[in-house]
Design goal:
With 426 residues, the chain is mainly alpha-helical. The protein has 15 helices and no strands. The N and C termini lie close together (9 Å).
């Protein structure tokens, strides 16, 4: 196990990281533009269901496209798939910019945005599938910490850039036109990501011959992935626990959005709400970065399974405190710790799955992983919408998340079951 401070990534990994991070910085700009247009416009005051729908629009393609991603990535050059998907997204954003310029908020815009995020699934899955081909097995946790956490921080940075650019555009443009310009800037970012892909060798990130499956396609991959995982009990439990953990984070994000938009700032000043939400995300991003640093250290000290259990249980006290004190300072503190421990959990579980599953089954396993986790994320958004009022003030939601984390840590990840295969994965 290599700690981040003593780890130097191989040169070919850098090429993959630049493609990933450029795309995810652009994701942040794109998502901030969508949020400004849909949720933080003066004429569009969101309630919990509108905000949950916005989350579902972002996440639904991951669940629908996910089962078919493995088919594409195990049959064609992943480098070419990633380059084409980035070019496609850049073109797709030209259409989105035009619709936003027209002020469209209907089904047409929703469908085009769904297509954009569906293409994103191909890119991230392809980069994740290729990573184990570039590093040694004992470097997987550290490499995942760098790739996934760096990507998450890149999204946060991109969101900040998007908000900063929006403020600059406010001085030159008005109405929906400035959001359309921001989308055009994001299209340029995806084009840059496509160009960066040229630095990766044609077969450098796969697929390799033994990874190609000609028999199972689509949702059949998800079912087969679940069947394979049943013989690896710790990986299956880790995937379900990741879903619970990510669903909780989504619900908290939705709560923070409504609190900043409708309670902590004047509802008639959406720009103040957007700035407050961006600040909360930035603090959470710092927690995410520190969680990535803590992951390899925690695994080295406690072992992979015990560290995952600690990471699931540690944020509970902050959630309980937040349930009694719904103020901005406590919210930001909770975001910091939930984000940090959540990221540590995620990178550790990703490495667990990558190290336990043979190459020829990995596409099917990650197809199941995608559907299970993203289904839980959408469920978290829907549950939050059912519990919260338009103000975002809620005692029940943080307590419910704390209860879910406690049950998951003590039952799903209990030592007698979760650590049964620990000798082969530590």
């Amino acid at each position: 196990m290599k700690a981040l401070g003593r780890y130097t990534p191989p040169r070919n990994l850098y090429k993959l990281l630049w493609v990933r991070w450029m795309g995810q910085i652009t994701d942040g700009i794109f998502q901030s533009a969508l949020a400004a247009f849909i949720l933080f416009s003066p004429e569009r005051q969101p309630d919990a269901f509108k905000a949950a729908l916005a989350f579902a629009v972002v996440l639904l393609p991951y669940s629908l496209v996910g089962p078919f991603v493995g088919v594409v990535l195990d049959r064609f050059s992943r480098k070419r798939v990633i380059a084409f998907a980035n070019l496609f997204r850049a073109t797709n954003l030209l259409v989105i910019a035009y619709l936003i310029f027209l002020g469209s908020t209907g089904m047409t815009l929703t469908l085009v945005v769904l297509i954009a995020f569906g293409a994103n699934r191909l890119i991230l899955a392809g980069l994740s599938a290729g990573l184990p081909l570039l590093v040694k097995k004992d470097e997987l946790i550290t490499s995942n910490a760098i790739a996934v956490t760096g990507g998450t921080i890149a999204v946060v940075i991109g969101g900040g850039l998007g908000i900063g650019l929006k403020n600059l555009l406010d001085t030159a443009f008005s109405g929906d036109f400035k959001d359309a310009v921001l989308i055009l800037i994001a299209a340029g970012g995806y084009l840059a990501a496509a160009l960066l892909t040229s630095g990766i060798g044609r077969n450098e990130i796969g697929p390799q011959g033994h990874e190609v499956s000609q028999e199972v396609t689509g949702f059949g991959e998800v079912i087969e992935g679940f069947t394979i995982l049943r013989s690896h009990g710790d990986t299956l439990r880790g995937i379900f626990a990741t879903g619970v953990q990510r669903g909780g984070i989504t619900a908290l994000t939705l709560m923070a959005l409504l609190l900043e938009r409708n309670t902590f700032n004047p509802p008639d000043d959406p720009d103040a709400g957007l700035r407050g939400f961006a600040y909360a995300l930035a603090i959470a991003g710092i927690g995410i970065g520190l969680g990535a640093l803590a992951g390899p250290i925690g695994v080295a000290k406690f072992g992979r399974h015990k560290w995952m259990r600690i990471s699931m249980l540690a944020p509970i006290s902050f959630l309980v405190f937040f349930s009694f004190f719904n103020n901005e300072i406590v919210m930001i503190m909770t975001a910091f710790f939930v984000g940090g421990f959540g990221q540590s959990f995620k990178i550790t579980n990703d490495a667990l799955v990558q190290s336990k599953i043979a190459d020829e089954f990995r596409g099917r396993i990650f197809a199941f992983y995608d559907v299970a986790v993203n289904g839980a994320i959408v469920s978290g958004a829907v549950i939050a919408a059912l519990i919260m009022p338009i103000s975002g003030l809620s005692m029940a939601l943080p307590m419910s998340i704390a209860g879910a984390y406690l049950l998951t840590g003590l039952r799903l990840l209990r030592r007698t079951k979760f650590s049964a295969d620990s000798n082969s994965t530590n």
